[in-house]
Recover the amino acids of this structure.
């Protein structure tokens, strides 16, 4: 009888648990998420011949010099952005979960690969956000008449 009780208790215990050793109430998190950046442009755009490239960049670090832009594996970078528009929405898909500390729009102003300038920054939440298998939405204003300081 004693063994029957132990066996019954064991069966009840097993049937009540279907999540292994996971904490109760913890949902699994996807390994990747998305960044949706709404970019608004104000001020006078530079001449087209001064815009060699324009991209949204989300960095997992705070840059200290322009050479930090060579840390490509620590950044998420968009395709080319449109020029001479009022607004644009950029979507970066399949972004590995991580915290981003410095994100904005970078402008290549000559054909020299090192001639980049930050022209707009995400400033909400101190410039920091975290992707955790979700969609993170941020807003950036690019004011060509009032560019941010770099390095920060």
């Amino acid at each position: 009888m004693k063994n029957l009780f132990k066996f019954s208790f064991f069966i009840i215990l097993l049937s009540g648990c279907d999540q292994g050793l996971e904490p109760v109430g913890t949902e699994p998190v996807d390994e990747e998420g998305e960044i949706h950046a709404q970019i608004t442009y104000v001020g006078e755009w530079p001449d087209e011949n001064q815009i060699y490239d324009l991209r949204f960049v989300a960095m997992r670090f705070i840059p200290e010099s322009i050479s930090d832009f060579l840390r490509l594996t620590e950044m998420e970078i968009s395709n080319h952005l449109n020029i001479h528009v009022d607004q644009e929405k950029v979507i970066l898909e399949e972004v590995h979960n991580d915290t981003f500390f410095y994100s904005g729009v970078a402008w290549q102003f000559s054909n020299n690969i090192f001639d980049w300038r930050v022209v707009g920054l995400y400033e909400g939440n101190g410039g920091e956000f975290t992707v955790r298998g979700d969609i993170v939405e941020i807003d950036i204003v690019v004011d060509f008449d009032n560019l941010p300081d770099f390095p920060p």
User: Anything to note?
Assistant: The first strand starts at residue 32 and ends at 42.
